Structures are given as C-alpha cells and as structure tokens.
C-alpha cells in the first residue's frame, strides 16, 4: 500500500482545488523559477522547462558543466564538510578514521612542506621513472610482469589490462575475474602535462634539464597510449596487432610509472597541482580550481563510502522516505511488466525472462541499515586494517589503495554477499548492477527535484521514477531478440544523429554511441508515466499547485524535464560529444518527449510540430 501525503479520497473530491501548503508553494515556486513561459512547450519543451534555470545559473569558473545534479552534489559536499570537521568524543572508530583522513588532506601547509618527497619515494618503490632518471638502463633490473603485478597488488592500479573481480554474469552467487583493455586517448595538452611533471621531478632530483630528451620520451609514451586505444577501438584489432609494434622497456616503464603518477598529482604540492590545472583548463575550459576542502571531501567520500554515508544520513535523511520510494518502484515494476506485452519485436521466451528479472530485482534505498546501528560492528570492521596519520596524506592514499586491491582480490574466493551495497549513501545518482540485479537509490539522490515525501507524486514519478527500471533491463534483453531489436532501434539512431549541437562546434550527436542510454531514457519516462497514471487511478488526482495552470499529467513532464536542466562549457561539450555514452542534457529531454504520444496529448501539440513529429521511434 502506497504511503500517502494526502488521503486519496481528498484528491478525488477536490479535483479543481489548489494545494496551498508550504510544501506545495515551495514546489510550485521552484518549477516556475526554472521555466521560460515565453517559449511554447510544443516548440521546444527543454527551453520551456529550463529556460529560467539556464538564465539564472552561471557555470562556476571551477566547473566544465553545471546542472541540477551538480548543484545537489555541491550542497551535499557542504553537508559533508560540516560533519567531517565536527569532532565528537562518541564517534565510533570508522568515523574517527574518516575524520583523520580528511584532516590529513586539509593539512595543506605540511603537504607543501613535503613537496615532491612522497612522489620520489613512490617512484623508487616501483622501479623508478626513466624519464626522470639518468641511470635507469644501467642500474635497474626490469620485468613487465613484475611491474604490472606490483601496480595491481600494491596500488590497485589497472594498466594495459583492466582486471577486476566482480559478480559472475552466469552465476550471481560467485565472483570471477573480468578483463578489458585499458583505453586512454590524449592530445597535445596531455603531452604538455606529462612533460611538466617529468621536468619538475627531474628538478627535484637535482638532474640537468634535458628538454629535448623529456619531450621525446613522453611523446613515445603518448604514442603507446594511442596505439592501445586504437587496438581497443578498431573494427579490426588484429590488423593493428599485426603491425608488431615493439616498445623498448624504457618506454614501457615510463608509461607504467606515469599511469600511477597521474592519479597522485593532485595530492602533492602546489607546483604539481598548477600543472594539472593548466591541463584541465585546456581540456575543459575551467579557469579556477575547486576549493581544496571540496577535493578532500570527495576523496574521503569515495574511499570510505559507508563511514561518510553514516555521517550524511544522520545529518540529513528522513528514514520514512525508504518506504515511499519502495512503493513507487513497485508501481513502475508492474507498469514495465505490462508494457512487455505491447512489444511486437520481443518473442515470448524473452518476455518471460524479462518479467522474471523485473520482479526479482533487489532494491536498496537510502542507506544500508548497519551503518547507523551502534551495536553492529560491521562498519568498524570494514576499516579495521586501515591506520591513517594526520601528517601523511599521500601515504594515507597509498594505504587505501593497497587495502582496496587486497579486498578486491580476496573476493575471488568468497561467495557473493547479496546484501552488499554497490555504492555509498552520500551520492547524488542512482545505480544498477545487472550481475546482481540490484538497483540502488542512495540517500543523496532522494531529494527535490528528484524525490521528496512532501512533494506531489507527479513530481516524484517524473523525477526519480524515470531513472529506475529501464536502465535495469536494457543490457540484459538485447541479447534475447537482437535482430528485431536492431530494426526498432535504427529509427532512434537516425533521430538522435540529426541533433546538431552548436555548443560543440556544430557536431552532431552520435546516434550509435548514445543508443543504449537513449533507449533507456525513452523507456524510462514511458514506464514512469504509465506507473503514475496507475497511481492516479487508485488514489485520485492531486490538487493543482499554486500559480501553475497545469494538470497532473503536465506536472509529470515538467519535472521530468527540469531534472535535466544544465549547461556546458564549449571545451567540455566538444570533448563529451565524442566520448560520452549519454546524449547532451537538452537532447535527452527533447528526444524522449518527441517520441511519446502521451506528452503531445498532455500539451495538445499539433501533429508535425517540433515536439510532435510525424515519425516517432519506440523500442520499449
């Protein structure tokens, strides 16, 4: 039974009433502020829904893009800063360690004082960095296998071959090893970055500056990275491999060491950080680096997810939201199963497999219960082997990496823990693991505009609802009915491939590389809307929001669009259109709604208008 903010009978008896509670006024004000009423919804619904937001928000100098997601992440980081900087005697061990790690990161004066010392020690421990050494060939015994093993076991760094332990696709009770080629493609700015770090390192070792040699050696590293990328991306990998490019051991060691160094540059002194900032400015258009405390918060959050999640949940999260989200998911599951019968391209066995998987999905909402249970030692045990020092931030990071490597490899001989969360609570996103058939809605995403126990269900279904079920099943179903699926999806490839993104220098969106996510977006909004209508059938229409001349159906689509409001810098747009598997935010909204008849009906868009084209694409 769905937990309701208002009794269903109240909705039924007041179809034309207006909700004037503080929560309704707040929601209406947010929606109105973000809109641009000068635009017709049937001409460009994204501009109609997000025009006010785009006019009001300026991309921060520290960012390459700015969106609703980014704003929520910024707010979350402020909360985490507050709780990490608050010392409490009663803190359990896991929390104390998270705060020690944070304090070590915030000790900028000591990081500056230590300068390159931690890096030089690290380089020596993995067989040195030839480009920053004048005696490597004569003093160093070298083995590619030993170096790769050391990078994996001690530093959790995957180079050349990305090997990791995860749940078996064919047996979700056990773990297996997966592998894939590591792909890196870089440009001239990246080469400058490599050279800068190499020159700084040579300087700190009191070696003569040999610029020509440094440039030559790092160019060879770049060529090696490019060849690896070409092998991975080529339609004919064998043809590339048959070239039999042989790289001398010096180039290989330069490459392997650089792969470890690049991740650690930002945890060193200002000289190193400035080199990284110059590279990021060229690549993403950012002119200022984030405040250092944000970097510290992000690192602690990513490396101690459950400890930081416990701090965040205690500070902000309303536990009763769990049941509301669970009920919403149940509605969408049922809508998804009903939709399967409408799909002519899917055969009966495929539909049955899809139905079984849909109903067997394991949902994790908000946070794992044990992180708030003082009597449960599971949280402390997770970090029992970690020992941090407030004076050694760099070494603390290495300690974490070694721990993660051992934890990952240890899983291979352990059965899968079905209750394990794949992500922490203090995250603004939703996640799905097809191997585990597990969906996670962390506490960080369960806030407006995505979800609130205080806002209309039209907004909740349009926000968090569409993120849910279609992302779960796309990858698992295309194998069942591949040929029919391809026929249906080709329409979508052409549709999105015709979107021309002026911000990216007039490049067109790749309908092929974004296909999977486009199908997910289209299906997600369709299933969420169908589930919402089922909810309305049971509970009745909700009162209108004040100041908005919109019915409940229109509110659903408005909030769906507004969760994707965002802007990009041109530099970032030019990069992301080549590499991102998602369409740009604007086209995620436009493409999905152009294909959905229910949207055109809700806003009475004439056939042939921009938002109601004659040709529509549908896979789900």
TrEMBL record:
| Domain of life the protein comes from | Eukaryota
Q: Does the record carry rRNA-binding as a key word? A: no
**Cofactors that this protein relies on:** Zn(2+)
Task: Write out the GO MF terms.
Answer: metal ion binding; metalloendopeptidase activity
SUPFAM superfamilies documented for this protein:
Metalloproteases ('zincins'), catalytic domain (SSF55486)
Query: Where does the Peptidase M13 N-terminal domain lie?
Result: 41-236, 249-368
Describe the location of the Peptidase M13 C-terminal domain by residue ranges.
Answer: 429-619
* Biological process per Gene Ontology, one example term: protein processing
Q: Name one GO cellular component term.
A: plasma membrane
Q: Which InterPro entries match?
A: MetalloPept_cat_dom_sf, Peptidase_M13, Peptidase_M13_C, Peptidase_M13_dom_2, Peptidase_M13_N
Record's keyword terms, sorted: Hydrolase, Metal-binding, Metalloprotease, Protease, Zinc
User: PANTHER family, from UniProt?
Assistant: MEMBRANE METALLO-ENDOPEPTIDASE-LIKE 1, ZINC METALLOPROTEASE FAMILY M13 NEPRILYSIN-RELATED
Protein name (record): Membrane metalloendopeptidase like 1
The species this protein belongs to is Cyclopterus lumpus (Lumpsucker)
């Amino acid at each position: 039974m769905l937990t309701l903010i208002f009794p269903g009978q109240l909705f039924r008896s007041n179809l034309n009433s207006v909700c004037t509670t503080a929560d309704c006024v707040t929601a209406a004000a947010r929606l109105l502020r973000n809109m641009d009423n000068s635009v017709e919804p049937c001409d460009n619904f994204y501009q109609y829904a997000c025009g006010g937001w785009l006019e009001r928000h300026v991309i921060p100098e520290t960012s390459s893009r700015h969106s609703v997601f980014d704003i929520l992440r910024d707010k979350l980081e402020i909360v985490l800063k507050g709780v990490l900087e608050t010392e409490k005697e009663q803190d359990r061990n896991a929390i104390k360690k998270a705060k020690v790690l944070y304090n070590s990161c915030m000790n900028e004066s000591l990081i500056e004082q230590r300068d390159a010392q931690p890096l030089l020690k690290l380089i020596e421990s993995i067989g040195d960095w030839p480009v920053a050494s004048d005696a490597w060939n004569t003093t160093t015994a070298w083995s590619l296998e030993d170096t790769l093993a050391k990078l994996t076991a001690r530093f959790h760094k995957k180079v050349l071959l990305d090997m990791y332990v995860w749940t078996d696709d064919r047996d979700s009770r056990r773990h297996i090893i997966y592998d894939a080629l590591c792909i890196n493609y870089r440009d001239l700015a990246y080469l400058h970055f490599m050279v800068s770090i190499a020159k700084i390192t040579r300087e700190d070792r009191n070696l003569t500056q040999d610029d020509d040699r440094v440039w030559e050696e790092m160019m060879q590293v770049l060529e090696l990275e490019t060849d690896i990328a070409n092998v991975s991306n080529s339609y004919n990998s064998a043809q590339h491999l048959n070239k039999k490019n042989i790289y001398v051991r010096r180039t290989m060691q330069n490459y392997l060491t650089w792969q470890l160094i690049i991740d650690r540059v930002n945890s060193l002194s200002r000289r190193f950080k400035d080199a990284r900032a110059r590279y990021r400015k060229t690549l993403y258009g950012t002119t200022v680096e984030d405040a250092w405390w944000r970097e510290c918060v992000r690192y602690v959050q990513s490396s101690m997810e459950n400890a930081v999640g416990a701090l965040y949940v205690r500070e902000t999260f309303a536990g009763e939201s769990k049941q509301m989200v669970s009920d919403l998911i149940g509605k969408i599951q049922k809508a998804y199963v009903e939709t399967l019968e409408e799909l002519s391209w899917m055969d009966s066995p495929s539909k049955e497999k899809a139905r079984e998987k849909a109903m067997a999905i394991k949902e994790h909402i908000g946070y794992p219960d044990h992180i708030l249970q003082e009597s449960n030692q599971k949280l402390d045990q997770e970090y029992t082997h970690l020992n941090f020092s407030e004076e050694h931030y760099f070494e603390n990071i290495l300690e974490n990496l070694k721990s993660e490597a051992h934890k990952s490899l240890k899983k291979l001989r352990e059965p899968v823990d079905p209750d394990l969360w794949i992500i922490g609570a203090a995250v603004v996103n939703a996640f799905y693991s097809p191997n585990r058939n597990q969906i996670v809605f962390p506490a960080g995403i369960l806030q407006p505009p995505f979800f609130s126990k205080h806002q209309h269900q039209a907004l909740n279904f349009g926000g968090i609802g569409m993120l849910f079920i279609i992302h779960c099943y796309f990858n698992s179903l295309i194998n069942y009915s591949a040929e029919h699926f391809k026929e249906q999806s080709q329409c979508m490839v052409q549709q999105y491939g015709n979107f021309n993104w002026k911000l990216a220098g007039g490049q067109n969106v790749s309908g092929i590389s974004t296909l999977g996510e486009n199908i997910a977006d289209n299906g997600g909004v369709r299933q969420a809307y169908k589930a919402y209508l089922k909810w309305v059938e049971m509970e009745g229409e909700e009162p209108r929001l004040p100041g908005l001349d919109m019915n409940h159906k229109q509110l659903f689509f408005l909030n769906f669009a507004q969760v994707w409001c965002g802007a990009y810098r041109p530099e970032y747009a030019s990069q992301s259109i080549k590499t991102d598997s998602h369409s740009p935010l604007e086209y995620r909204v436009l493409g999905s709604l152009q294909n959905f008849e229910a949207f055109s009906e809700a806003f009475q868009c004439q056939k042939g208008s921009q938002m109601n084209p004659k040709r529509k694409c549908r896979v789900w």
